[in-house]
Write a structure and sequence with these properties.
The protein is α/β, with parallel strands linked by helices. Helices cover about 20% and strands about 20% of the residues.
Protein backbone atom coordinates (compact mmCIF):
# COMPACT_ATOMS: atom_id res chain seq x y z
CA UNK A 1 0.00 0.00 0.00
CA UNK A 2 2.86 2.41 0.71
CA UNK A 3 4.20 1.97 -2.82
CA UNK A 4 0.93 3.12 -4.38
CA UNK A 5 0.27 6.83 -4.86
CA UNK A 6 -3.12 7.66 -3.36
CA UNK A 7 -5.30 10.76 -3.48
CA UNK A 8 -5.84 12.52 -0.16
CA UNK A 9 -3.17 10.78 1.91
CA UNK A 10 0.58 10.52 1.80
CA UNK A 11 1.03 7.35 3.86
CA UNK A 12 -1.36 4.51 4.63
CA UNK A 13 0.66 3.59 7.73
CA UNK A 14 0.48 7.16 9.08
CA UNK A 15 -3.27 7.27 8.46
CA UNK A 16 -3.77 3.94 10.23
CA UNK A 17 -1.80 5.19 13.24
CA UNK A 18 -3.89 8.38 13.34
CA UNK A 19 -7.15 6.39 13.29
CA UNK A 20 -5.99 4.16 16.16
CA UNK A 21 -4.81 7.15 18.20
CA UNK A 22 -8.27 8.69 17.86
CA UNK A 23 -9.81 5.39 18.92
CA UNK A 24 -7.56 5.33 21.99
CA UNK A 25 -8.62 8.89 22.86
CA UNK A 26 -12.29 7.90 22.72
CA UNK A 27 -11.63 4.81 24.85
CA UNK A 28 -9.96 6.95 27.52
CA UNK A 29 -12.84 9.42 27.52
CA UNK A 30 -15.37 6.57 27.72
CA UNK A 31 -13.62 5.05 30.75
CA UNK A 32 -13.32 8.40 32.56
CA UNK A 33 -17.01 9.36 32.58
CA UNK A 34 -18.50 5.97 33.47
CA UNK A 35 -18.74 3.69 36.52
CA UNK A 36 -15.67 1.60 35.74
CA UNK A 37 -14.05 0.21 38.89
CA UNK A 38 -10.30 0.28 39.48
CA UNK A 39 -8.42 -3.01 39.41
CA UNK A 40 -4.77 -3.96 39.74
CA UNK A 41 -4.96 -6.39 36.83
CA UNK A 42 -3.42 -9.82 36.66
CA UNK A 43 -1.37 -12.21 34.57
CA UNK A 44 -3.90 -12.18 31.71
CA UNK A 45 -5.79 -8.90 32.32
CA UNK A 46 -4.71 -5.28 32.24
CA UNK A 47 -5.10 -2.67 34.95
CA UNK A 48 -8.17 -0.43 34.89
CA UNK A 49 -8.66 3.07 36.24
CA UNK A 50 -11.64 4.24 38.28
CA UNK A 51 -14.13 6.41 36.40
CA UNK A 52 -15.69 9.63 37.67
CA UNK A 53 -18.74 7.80 38.99
CA UNK A 54 -16.52 5.70 41.23
CA UNK A 55 -14.93 8.77 42.81
CA UNK A 56 -18.21 10.56 43.56
CA UNK A 57 -19.49 8.63 46.54
CA UNK A 58 -21.54 10.93 48.72
CA UNK A 59 -24.64 10.00 50.70
CA UNK A 60 -27.51 8.82 48.47
CA UNK A 61 -30.34 10.99 49.74
CA UNK A 62 -33.92 11.17 48.53
CA UNK A 63 -34.45 14.17 46.30
CA UNK A 64 -38.14 14.13 45.40
CA UNK A 65 -40.29 17.15 46.16
CA UNK A 66 -42.10 17.04 49.50
CA UNK A 67 -39.53 15.00 51.40
CA UNK A 68 -36.77 15.96 53.78
CA UNK A 69 -33.66 16.27 51.63
CA UNK A 70 -30.00 16.90 52.25
CA UNK A 71 -27.51 18.29 49.77
CA UNK A 72 -24.98 15.66 48.80
CA UNK A 73 -22.30 14.80 46.27
CA UNK A 74 -24.42 11.81 45.22
CA UNK A 75 -28.15 12.51 44.92
CA UNK A 76 -30.68 9.78 44.22
CA UNK A 77 -33.55 10.82 41.97
CA UNK A 78 -36.29 8.90 43.79
CA UNK A 79 -37.57 8.54 47.37
CA UNK A 80 -38.29 4.83 46.99
CA UNK A 81 -35.90 2.62 48.95
CA UNK A 82 -33.99 0.51 46.46
CA UNK A 83 -30.73 -1.28 45.78
CA UNK A 84 -29.14 1.85 44.31
CA UNK A 85 -25.62 1.89 45.75
CA UNK A 86 -22.44 3.91 45.73
CA UNK A 87 -19.01 2.86 46.93
CA UNK A 88 -17.18 4.99 49.53
CA UNK A 89 -13.73 6.40 48.87
CA UNK A 90 -11.44 5.13 51.62
CA UNK A 91 -8.05 6.72 52.30
CA UNK A 92 -8.20 8.50 48.96
CA UNK A 93 -8.83 5.30 46.99
CA UNK A 94 -12.18 4.45 45.32
CA UNK A 95 -13.75 1.05 45.89
CA UNK A 96 -13.35 -1.92 43.59
CA UNK A 97 -17.09 -2.49 43.03
CA UNK A 98 -18.95 -0.45 40.43
CA UNK A 99 -22.00 1.51 41.72
CA UNK A 100 -25.44 0.24 40.76
CA UNK A 101 -28.60 2.13 39.78
CA UNK A 102 -31.21 -0.14 41.30
CA UNK A 103 -34.59 -0.85 39.72
CA UNK A 104 -36.47 2.29 40.82
CA UNK A 105 -35.63 5.36 38.75
CA UNK A 106 -37.07 8.81 38.09
CA UNK A 107 -36.64 11.63 35.61
CA UNK A 108 -34.14 14.42 36.24
CA UNK A 109 -35.62 17.48 37.96
CA UNK A 110 -34.28 20.92 38.76
CA UNK A 111 -34.59 20.07 42.46
CA UNK A 112 -32.23 17.11 42.49
CA UNK A 113 -29.75 18.78 40.14
CA UNK A 114 -29.63 21.80 42.47
CA UNK A 115 -29.08 19.47 45.44
CA UNK A 116 -26.04 17.95 43.73
CA UNK A 117 -24.65 21.40 42.89
CA UNK A 118 -25.27 22.47 46.48
CA UNK A 119 -23.45 19.39 47.77
CA UNK A 120 -20.34 20.22 45.74
CA UNK A 121 -20.52 23.93 46.65
CA UNK A 122 -20.90 23.16 50.37
CA UNK A 123 -17.64 21.21 50.22
CA UNK A 124 -15.77 24.12 48.64
CA UNK A 125 -16.15 23.07 45.01
CA UNK A 126 -17.27 25.06 41.98
CA UNK A 127 -19.03 22.57 39.72
CA UNK A 128 -18.86 24.75 36.63
CA UNK A 129 -19.51 21.91 34.14
CA UNK A 130 -22.61 19.71 33.95
CA UNK A 131 -22.13 16.57 31.85
CA UNK A 132 -25.27 14.83 30.63
CA UNK A 133 -26.61 12.51 27.96
CA UNK A 134 -29.19 13.49 25.37
CA UNK A 135 -32.22 12.35 27.41
CA UNK A 136 -31.23 14.51 30.39
CA UNK A 137 -30.15 17.42 28.19
CA UNK A 138 -33.70 17.59 26.82
CA UNK A 139 -35.05 17.82 30.38
CA UNK A 140 -32.58 20.60 31.28
CA UNK A 141 -33.65 22.51 28.16
CA UNK A 142 -37.20 22.36 29.50
CA UNK A 143 -36.44 23.84 32.93
CA UNK A 144 -38.48 26.98 33.59
CA UNK A 145 -36.49 30.12 34.31
CA UNK A 146 -36.72 33.85 34.82
CA UNK A 147 -34.48 34.60 31.83
CA UNK A 148 -35.51 35.69 28.35
CA UNK A 149 -33.32 34.53 25.49
CA UNK A 150 -31.95 37.15 23.11
CA UNK A 151 -29.85 36.34 20.05
CA UNK A 152 -28.02 38.83 17.82
CA UNK A 153 -28.84 38.05 14.20
CA UNK A 154 -27.06 39.59 11.23
CA UNK A 155 -29.36 41.35 8.79
CA UNK A 156 -28.19 39.14 5.93
CA UNK A 157 -28.90 35.84 7.68
CA UNK A 158 -32.05 34.01 8.66
CA UNK A 159 -33.18 34.03 12.28
CA UNK A 160 -32.30 30.79 14.11
CA UNK A 161 -34.73 28.81 16.25
CA UNK A 162 -33.29 28.51 19.77
CA UNK A 163 -34.38 25.27 21.42
CA UNK A 164 -31.52 24.45 23.79
CA UNK A 165 -29.87 25.77 26.94
CA UNK A 166 -26.07 25.60 27.09
CA UNK A 167 -25.64 27.53 30.36
CA UNK A 168 -27.45 27.00 33.65
CA UNK A 169 -27.28 29.87 36.15
CA UNK A 170 -28.40 28.96 39.65
CA UNK A 171 -27.76 29.71 43.30
CA UNK A 172 -24.33 28.08 43.12
CA UNK A 173 -22.90 29.84 40.11
CA UNK A 174 -22.79 29.61 36.35
CA UNK A 175 -22.63 26.09 34.93
CA UNK A 176 -21.87 25.07 31.35
CA UNK A 177 -24.12 22.22 30.19
CA UNK A 178 -22.16 19.79 28.00
CA UNK A 179 -23.82 17.03 26.00
CA UNK A 180 -21.78 13.83 26.34
CA UNK A 181 -22.35 10.69 24.27
CA UNK A 182 -20.25 8.25 26.32
CA UNK A 183 -21.90 8.69 29.72
CA UNK A 184 -24.49 6.34 31.15
CA UNK A 185 -28.02 7.66 30.59
CA UNK A 186 -28.90 7.08 34.26
CA UNK A 187 -26.33 9.57 35.61
CA UNK A 188 -25.71 13.33 35.50
CA UNK A 189 -22.26 14.63 36.51
CA UNK A 190 -21.58 18.06 38.04
CA UNK A 191 -17.83 18.55 37.68
CA UNK A 192 -15.29 21.02 39.01
CA UNK A 193 -12.55 20.75 36.32
CA UNK A 194 -9.91 22.18 38.69
CA UNK A 195 -9.87 18.91 40.63
CA UNK A 196 -9.63 16.43 37.75
CA UNK A 197 -6.66 15.48 35.59
CA UNK A 198 -5.36 12.69 33.38
CA UNK A 199 -1.95 11.39 34.45
CA UNK A 200 0.33 9.39 32.15
CA UNK A 201 2.87 6.77 33.09
CA UNK A 202 3.57 6.34 29.38
CA UNK A 203 2.10 8.82 26.93
CA UNK A 204 0.47 7.53 23.72
CA UNK A 205 3.04 6.49 21.14
CA UNK A 206 3.31 4.22 18.11
CA UNK A 207 6.22 1.78 18.13
CA UNK A 208 7.15 -0.35 15.14
CA UNK A 209 7.28 -4.11 15.70
CA UNK A 210 9.31 -6.75 13.91
CA UNK A 211 8.17 -7.23 10.34
CA UNK A 212 6.51 -10.37 9.07
CA UNK A 213 7.34 -10.78 5.40
CA UNK A 214 6.38 -7.60 3.57
CA UNK A 215 3.98 -6.41 6.29
CA UNK A 216 4.60 -3.39 8.52
CA UNK A 217 3.23 -3.61 12.07
CA UNK A 218 2.98 -1.01 14.82
CA UNK A 219 2.00 -1.14 18.47
CA UNK A 220 0.06 1.68 20.17
CA UNK A 221 1.23 2.06 23.78
CA UNK A 222 -0.38 4.14 26.51
CA UNK A 223 -0.61 3.92 30.30
CA UNK A 224 -2.84 6.53 31.91
CA UNK A 225 -5.11 7.04 34.89
CA UNK A 226 -7.81 9.48 35.92
CA UNK A 227 -6.70 11.69 38.83
CA UNK A 228 -9.26 13.07 41.28
CA UNK A 229 -7.66 15.69 43.52
CA UNK A 230 -10.79 16.20 45.64
CA UNK A 231 -13.85 14.05 45.01
CA UNK A 232 -16.07 16.21 47.23
CA UNK A 233 -15.70 19.20 44.88
CA UNK A 234 -17.91 17.46 42.29
CA UNK A 235 -21.26 15.68 42.46
CA UNK A 236 -23.66 13.42 40.58
CA UNK A 237 -27.35 12.60 40.28
CA UNK A 238 -28.06 8.88 39.94
CA UNK A 239 -30.96 6.51 39.22
CA UNK A 240 -32.28 8.63 36.34
CA UNK A 241 -34.59 7.32 33.64
Amino acid sequence: MEAVKKAGRGSEVARGAMVKMRELKRDLEYAMVRNQASTAGGATTGRTMAGMEMWLSGYLNNAATGTTVTASTAVRSTTTADTCTTVPVTSGVPGATAPTDGTTTAALTKTNMDLALQGAWSNGGNASVILCTSNNKILIDGFTSIATRFVDVDAATQSPIIGAANVYVGDYGRHTVVLHRYMRTSVLLCIDPNYWALAFLRRPMARELARTGDGTKYQIICEASLVCRNQQASAKVVALT
